Amino acid sequence: MLARIVVLIKQVPTTESVRLNEETGTMIRTGMDSAINPLDLHAVEQAVRIKDNAPDTTHITVLSMGPSQARSAIREALAMGCDEGILLSGREFAGADTWATAYTLVQGLRGLFPFDLVLCGERATDGETGQVGPMVAALCGLPLITYVNRLTWDEGTITACRAIEGGTEIVSCPLPVLACVLRELNEPRLPTLAGKVRAHELDITVLDGEGIGADKSLLGLAGSPTRVVKVIYPSFQRNTQLFLANDEGMEAALDHLETSLRRAP
Amino acid sequence: MTVARGVWVLGEQRNGRIHPVSYELLAWGRALADDLHVYLECVMVGTGITAAAKSLIAHGADRVRCLEHSELLTFRVDPYARIVESLVREHQPEILLAAATTMGRTLMPVLAAHLHTGLTADCTGLSIDPNERLLLQTRPAIGGNVLATIKTPEHRPQMATVHPKARRPLAADPSRVGEIVVETIDESLLGSRVLRLGFEEDLTMASSLQDAELIVAGGRGLRTAKRFSDLFEIAAHLGGVVGASRCAVDLGWASHAHQVGLSGKSVSPTTYIALGISGSPNHLAGMSSAERVIAINSDADAPIFQVADVGLVADLADLLPRWLDRLRARKRRDGQGGLGG
Ligand SMILES: Cc1cc2nc3c(=O)[nH]c(=O)nc-3n(C[C@H](O)[C@H](O)[C@H](O)COP(=O)(O)OP(=O)(O)OC[C@H]3O[C@@H](n4cnc5c(N)ncnc54)[C@H](O)[C@@H]3O)c2cc1C
Predict the structure, then answer these.
(1) Element (DSSP H or E) covering residue B201
(2) N or C, which end of chain A is more exposed by having fewer CB within 10 Å?
(3) A147 and A34 within one domain
(4) Ligand 1: which of B215, B220, B255 to mutate, judged by most atoms within 8 Å of the beta carbon?
(5) Is the dihedral angle over the CA atoms B81, B87, B89, B91 positive or is it negative?
(6) Which CATH number is A84's domain given?
(7) Element of type H or E holding A40
């Protein structure tokens, strides 16, 4: 029987110098270097490892929401060994918060039923919320396993280790299931040249809001329960005494340091 | 339609003991409830919590809702989410807070999805906009150079997770009065598709960083792995532990367990010494509740000085070896003194 895996990925900026649109608080990402979210690579790697064990009976779909440039992130995953790429892209998706993003991905997933396993990275390195994976599971009605650092697939059941406070929890769940994976899960492979060539030749399906049968009022900024009110460059209010070692001498600086340490705060 | 009212915090227990993060949540919630002139309620899911609920009242709760069942001893997302969701739908709080622990980060998105409302992760600041009566949720945003303030104008409850240790609990006041409500559990909500097979305790993961009273933290400004490793000796002399910026971790000078900040740990020591750390908001997110901050940096304009009580503008390549010499000399002296006396 065919095992079907879907990996959710996100394209993220590779630089830390992202700008925000001051009015909407959403990210301005044009003209920046982008790549697949590093944590998603571990989800892709896990899927490809399952496929390595049963190449003829495993099918991996990569699903992403993003601007049309996000095709290149999907190609990175295809080059690692995934079979099919789908990009949800359209003006109506812009400005989505985590709820609206999850809703959009779930609408995309509905077109892929039935599947056995949905994998995603623990969080994206730009938004850093870690909310989309669990929200997708909830809106899809899928069982959810978060913080996975080991995963085995055996005859319709997933067994996983979860790295949580104070130790490791071992859980199992019948398929289908959604798992959010940690960096510790595996070492992502580098794509081979043949993989890159294959990825380049594969067509990536692009679907907009209509294509996934979405309720337009639930998409993008319009469908987002949250709003960014303001973005500030933080300032803090501690009363700092600065001591300049160049003027006062290093030994005096050390005296000052040690006196401060002896004083109770 | 009824108007949503009241501030709720989702406490945590481990093996029937109230986890201290619950008291931090009450400190966050108390300030908001006072501003809104509403009740602060603490929801506890687990086993054996009713007996301990009094301490939650002493720490600021006006009402504690206990959801007790032997099947709820350990966190499993299916039953926890169903039970809390039904309670939220019944009572309609305007605000729901949880800690950004692995439980909070798993449960809250599931609840927000089902309740169709907004959720802000890892907040470092929460306040009330008095004009609109809305929760203002502040978190470090993309790139780490800014703080974004987010609100949920129309959907209820307004939901947020807060970083553990980002705020100190209120002092316990045993004379505070409050109500303890033992909720009846609908057993049909207790099923879970995910089965827990076991738990392997790992004491090395239980971090000493978060409990430390003194942290000696280093960043890229230390320049070499060798100089970073000197921090361990300094920390040993001072009776503290070593923290690191993400840059230092990325450079391989320290393991991720040492990382302080948004994607690392939040700490709340008495004294935080930052050596060669620039003080990006992502780093500050993890240590700004330290009681006292001492910063050493060669750049007088480094942002870390804005959060420091004591700042030394100094080159660590020069200062660090001299400091170590002093500490070692003192130890030798003390050692000899001990022998002689
Ligand atoms: C989403 C996201 C999450 C992040 N999470 C975290 C996090 O959890 N924790 C974290 O720390 N960072 C985090 N970061 C990274 C953060 O934005 C900064 O890049 C990082 O904190 C900088 O580390 P640093 O201060 O060690 O290095 P730098 O910013 O490079 O600062 C080095 C400092 O050393 C000083 N210096 C240089 N030479 C000397 C010398 N000889 N003597 C004295 N001082 C010297 C410099 O003046 C400078 O201020 C995150 C970033 C992103 C995008």
Answers:
(1) strand B195-201
(2) N
(3) yes
(4) B220
(5) negative
(6) 3.40.50.620
(7) helix A38-53
Q: Cβ–Cβ of B77/A144 closer than 8 Å?
A: yes
- Note which residues in 74-103 of chain B have CB less than 8 A from chain A: 77-78, 81, 101-103
Q: Cβ contact (<8 Å) for A261 and B202?
A: no
The range of the structural domain enclosing residue A195 comes to 3-218
Give a yes or no: residue A225 inside a domain.
Answer: no
Q: How far apart are the first and last CA of chain A?
A: 66
Contact B15, B168 (CB under 8 A): no
| Amino acid code (one letter) for B337 | G
Same domain as A243, residue A197: no
Query: Which chain A residues have a beta carbon less than 8 Å from that of B264?
Result: none
Task: Quote the CA–CA distance of B323 and B130 in Å, as a whole number.
Answer: 50
Contact by Cβ (8 Å): A87, A207: yes
Nearest to A126 by CA among A66, A83, A81: A66
> Do A18 and A64 fall into the same domain?
yes
- The DSSP line for B262-304 is TTSB----SEEEEES----HHHHTTTTT-SEEEEEES-TT-GG
Q: What is the pLDDT of residue B172?
A: 96
Domain shared by A250 and A121, yes or no? no
- Domains of chain B and any CATH numbers: 7-189 (3.40.50.620), 205-334 (3.40.50.1220)
Kindly give the pairing relationship between strand B271-275 and strand B241-244. unpaired
Structure-block tokens of residue B100: 């950004």
Q: What ipTM was predicted for this assembly?
A: 0.87
| pLDDT per position as a tens digit, B1-53 | 468 899 999 999 998 899 999 999 999 999 999 999 999 999 999 998 998 89
Edge-to-edge strand order for the sheet containing B310-313? Answer: A241-244, B310-313, B292-297, B271-275, B214-218, B241-244
A198-223 average pLDDT score: 97
Residue A23 lies in a domain: yes
- Beta-carbon contacts below 8 Å between A and B: 236
